C-alpha cells in the first residue's frame, strides 16, 4: 500500500516520538541542501531554542517515506550517545511533508571547522575529535547499525564537541547493504571492484571511512584534494595509493588510521579496537613519538593483483553518473554534497 509508511508516521506522533506543530517554529532560514532535501535553521519559540529542521524534498512515494521512517527509528535508538546529534521529534508542513527536528550544531560541519580553525588546533584537540567520532561510530556498531555515509559534512560540531549526523542511509546489518550514497573519497574502495559485485557494505566499510577522516583531522585537508573524483578511486583501487603521512602526527595515531584504510576489509580493525587504541594515546608520555621524515615510511603503491583497471574505470564512471548496477535490484548512487549545513 502506498500509504503504509505515512500511516506509521501518523500513528507514531506523540507515541514513538515527539510531535511539534509547524507553527511552533519561527525565523526559519535555509542552512544547506543536498540530494535528499534541505536543512533549515529555526527557533523553537516555546523554549527560545535553535533547532535544525531536516526536510525530504523527493516525491513522497512509499520508498521515500520508508527512508524517513528508517531515519526516525535509528535516530530515536541512538539518541542517548553524547557524540550523536540529538533527535527532538518531527513536525509537518501542509501536504503531509514531514521534517525531522534535530539539535542545532553551532559549529557547522567538521569540514568547515577544519577550514576555519585548523591552524589553531593542537594535538589534544585533534585527538579529542577523532576519539569522539570513533566513539559515536563504535556505539552504532554495538547496536549492529552501519552508518554507510561517514564523511566530514555529516559530522557536526556543537560547543566544540563532535556530533555525528545524517542517518538516512544507515541500516541494520541484517538488511541488504549493497546500495551506497555519499562522498566518494571516503567510500570503501571494495565497492568499486567488479570482482566484488556482491560486496556488501559492512562495519568495516565505516572503519575505512573513519580512517580517511582521521587523516583529514591530522592534515586539515580533503584527501587527495588535487585529484579529481574519477582519478582518486582509480588510483586507490588499482595502485592502492593512500594519502601521505603528515609530519608531526603521533606514531600511534597514524598506525591506527593506516590500519583502518587497509584495502582488505578483513585486515581492518573493528571500531571497538580503534577506540581502545585511541584511548591509550598519551600525548604527555616521555616515550611519545611523532612522525618525522626520519622515522616514517610511506604507504605502499604496489599494484593490486588480478585487478582490471578498465573495469574499475567503468565502474567509477558509472557511479558518478548514477548508472552503476551491481545486480538487478541494487544500484549505487552518488550524492557529493549531502547536507552542507553551512553558515
Topology (elements, then pairings):
Elements: H1 4-12, E1 19-21, E2 25-33, E3 38-44, E4 49-55, H2 62-78, E5 87-93, E6 97-103, H3 110-117, H4 123-142, E7 145-146, E8 155-158, E9 161-164, E10 171-172, H5 203-219, H6 229-238, H7 251-260, H8 271-279, H9 309-320, E11 324-327, E12 330-332
Parallel strand pairs: 1-5
Antiparallel strand pairs: 2-3, 3-4, 4-6, 5-6, 7-10, 8-9, 11-12
Helix pairs in contact: 1-2, 4-5, 4-8, 5-7, 6-9
Keywords: ATP-binding, Kinase, Nucleotide-binding, Transferase
Protein name: Kinase-like protein
GO molecular function: ATP binding; protein serine/threonine kinase activity
Can you describe this structure?
The chain is of the alpha+beta class. The protein folds into 2 domains: 4-103, Phosphorylase Kinase, domain 1 (2-Layer Sandwich); 110-332, Transferase(Phosphotransferase), domain 1. 33% of the residues lie in helices and 17% in strands. It is built from 9 helices and 12 strands. The chain has helices at 4-12, 62-78, 110-117, 123-142, 203-219, 229-238, 251-260, 271-279, 309-320, and strands at residues 19-21, 25-33, 38-44, 49-55, 87-93, 97-103, 145-146, 155-158, 161-164, 171-172, 324-327, 330-332. The strands form 4 sheets. A 6-stranded mixed sheet has the order 1-5-6-4-3-2, covered by helices on one side. Strands 7-10 form a two-stranded antiparallel ribbon. A hairpin with a 2-residue loop joins strand 8 and strand 9 (161-164). Helix 4 (123-142) packs antiparallel against helix 5, helix 4 (123-142) packs antiparallel against helix 8 and helix 5 packs antiparallel against helix 7. The protein is globular, with a radius of gyration of 20 Å. The relative contact order is 0.14. Residues 172-182, 298-307 and 320-343 have low confidence and may be disordered. GO terms for molecular function: ATP binding; protein serine/threonine kinase activity. This is Kinase-like protein. Keywords: ATP-binding, Kinase, Nucleotide-binding, Transferase. Residues 25-288 form the Protein kinase domain. InterPro entries: Kinase-like_dom_sf, Prot_kinase_dom, Ser-Thr/Tyr_kinase_cat_dom, Ser/Thr_Kinases-Pseudokinases.
